[in-house]
Amino acid sequence: MLNAVPASPPVHTGLPTARAVDHYAFTVPRLDEAVAYAVDVLGGRLCYREGPVEDPSGDWMTRKLGVHPRARAQVALVRLGPCTNLELFEYTAPDQLLAPPGPNDVGGHHLALTVADPDVAEDHLRRAGTVRLGPAGPPGTAHRWFLTPWGMLLSVRGPLRPDGRRFVPAPDPHPTAVQSALGLLGVEHVGYTVADLDAGVAFFTDVLGAEVVESGAAPDTGPDGHRPPGAEQSRRVLLRTGPTANCELVQSGTGALRSRPPRNSDIGGHHLAFYVDDVDAAAAYLREQRGVVLMGEPETITQGPIAGDRWLYFSTPIGIQMEILSMPDGSLPYERQTTARRATPGSLRWHDRP
Fold first, then answer.
1. What percent of the chain is modeled with pLDDT above 90?
2. Among 170, 189, 194, 350, which is most exposed with the fewest C-beta within 10 angstroms?
3. What is the pTM of this model?
4. Residue 189 belongs to what H/E stretch?
5. Closest among 275, 286, 296, 264 to 343, alpha carbons compared
6. Do residues 169 and 80 touch, judged by C-beta distance below 8 A?
7. What's the Rg (C-alpha) of the chain?
8. Could you tell me the pLDDT band of residue 6, with boundaries at 50, 70 and 90?
């Protein structure tokens, strides 16, 4: 559980009863490989695995997850650093796309890590088979770009100075040995490439209650390290999404090969999940928002490692699939099998700034 500052009164703007980003979810080709990398290379802690998630004869997978009715999924949850959960999926589906979107494409994405020493971190990542993209950037560039063994983009940068606006990862008081070897301080942001940056920012601020903290990189500027080598220099906006997360939205490039985001079941599929106190109240609010489509009604999981989780997926007009959920952390079945625990908001609220 996070170390909390005194909670502020609830702020009635944005997603009702929202506390924090709960997890970043990504669909990978091989779940075992991705879990091993997240644990053995990035220093995460495996909390649980579940599956198969399937409906052999009905349409539940389509109605609730937006995938082919015969799709089948295996899932794992890895805690990465003090504040972040990664939910990793391996899908099989008759219509699955096997190539992930690129950074210029709609649906492109990356995970940005903050480390104590970028040189030490690069050496650690390269020894584990992580590919460094491009040569060292020009003087003053902060980001180094890497590709995981299955093709997901990572950016790495050194410590940030707190400015009171963006979330800045702080050292984990109880790091794993691998986390210490990497020097991981935490996940600084997740990045998504969208078809319409202005519409994306408006959705995040007006509907979700996010705050703009940084804008940059007009298309005609030179490389600044914020985009991977070879990617177009597109406009981007960094938003504060709750007390312990940032989200970067990037305008898709003129050379984009894909104009539609991936489905959950495609390699490179993804969604963004928010922890809320009241899933039903949040769903009622989202139902009234233009362009939002709820995938059925909220459901409560009744068996498995996270029995008691109440959740609902929804699609958005900006092409990023999202989820709202509320879990009885502290009494989940997986907690009887491991000492690892999901990162939770604790007493923090959406507009708190620890």
1. 85
2. 170
3. 0.94
4. strand 184-194
5. 275
6. no
7. 19
8. very low
